[in-house]
Amino acid sequence: MQVVGIESASGRSSIFIGERLNNLPNHLPPGRAIVITDDNLLRLYRAELPSLPVLSIGCGESVKTLETVKSLYETLVDLEADRSTFLIGIGGGVVCDVAGFVASTFMRGLRFGFVATTLLAQVDASVGGKNGVNLGGFKNLVGSFNQPEFVLCDLRLLDSLPEGEVANGMAEIVKHALIADAGMFAFLEERAEEALALDPATIEKLVGRSIAIKAGVVGRDEREAGERRILNFGHTFGHALEKVGRWSHGEAVSVGMVLAAGLSVKMGRLPEAAYQRMTALLRRLRLPVAAAADPKQVLEALRRDKKREAAVIHFVLLDDIGRASVKEVEIRELERQLVEFPEILRQESRP
Ligand code: GLY
């Protein structure tokens, strides 16, 4: 089993890749513990949970709200949780975000850990210490930086994921390779079919490398004052696409990466051949490289998303496979470039 550590101002986190859900008790401190999870996990894996109180938050992005947080606080009061109670979030990104935020704020902070059960949670959402909920149409507007003491990534649980959930995680895996590791990108090219089939050895290597890349970046810049911004590669356009369309996070990030890489080619930073390698791999991983979206709506969503920033945003450009940099780019410039990519963002035909 590979173990990756993060040392940061908000604490130390150990991420165990390949650890089993049923070994969770071995990672808990002595004393009281309470599980926060979702309905899907309960349906599939209730029998594997330790005998602890279990709170379920429902399912999906729509429950990532302050109302859910309030209801969890109230249940914790009913259960007489106190400062010594340990919270465990078991689930995907939504459970980790909500459980981490509740743990960080209830009675000014409880100790907590996660069992990440989806590919997206394992390679991204459970790692990094950002916790929080959505508010008023804005993603993660309310939250905290606080590292879980441990994250267990039980790779066996991935077998029950629907295809769309695999795509969500796969897009983040490709992102990590693109921004930081040309060797990992070449491995993905060699093993794309095995990765899609969740071949255990292939997936263990990809999850381990993804986490090591993210942990390294977070350890150097937990609060996203600089380097951590590179983890947003593909997400500026990706979040805008998620807002205007019916694309999943992975699909939107995939098209967002193509747009950002296309822009990097136009700016003379990224060789065209690298762009072609990237789109070829995304296609093999059954991720989209184009979206039928109205560019005007995408731009409007992007502008709204960035409303608290100036006309200039930090935008992640690709310099080569395995190397990215963050540049200040005017939103107007992004707009200009976006409409010049009709092959990526096609005007949706109106009825
Ligand atoms: N918890 C996700 C992150 O910190 O990026």
Characterization of the model:
Helix 2 packs across helix 3, helix 3 packs across helix 4 and helix 5 packs across helix 8 (200-220). The model has no long low-confidence stretch (mean pLDDT 93). The relative contact order is 0.11. The chain has 13 helices and 13 strands. It has 2 domains: 2-160, 3-Layer(aba) Sandwich (Rossmann fold), CATH 3.40.50.1970; 163-338, Up-down Bundle (Dehydroquinate synthase-like, alpha domain). The longest helix is centred in the middle third of the chain and has 21 residues, at 200-220. The protein is α/β, with parallel strands linked by helices and 351 residues long. A 7-stranded mixed beta sheet has the order 1-2-9-6-5-3-4. The chain has a two-stranded antiparallel sheet with strand order 7-8. The structure holds glycine. Glycine is lined by residues 125, 128-130.
How does the SSE layout of this entry go?
Elements: E1 2-8, E2 11-17, E3 33-37, H1 39-45, E4 54-56, H2 66-78, E5 86-91, H3 93-105, E6 111-116, H4 119-125, E7 130-135, E8 138-145, E9 150-153, H5 163-180, H6 182-190, H7 192-196, H8 200-220, H9 235-244, H10 249-266, H11 272-284, E10 291-292, H12 295-305, E11 312-320, E12 323-330, H13 331-338, E13 345-346
Parallel strand pairs: 2-9, 3-4, 3-5, 5-6, 6-9, 10-13
Antiparallel strand pairs: 1-2, 7-8, 11-12
Bound molecules: glycine (GLY).
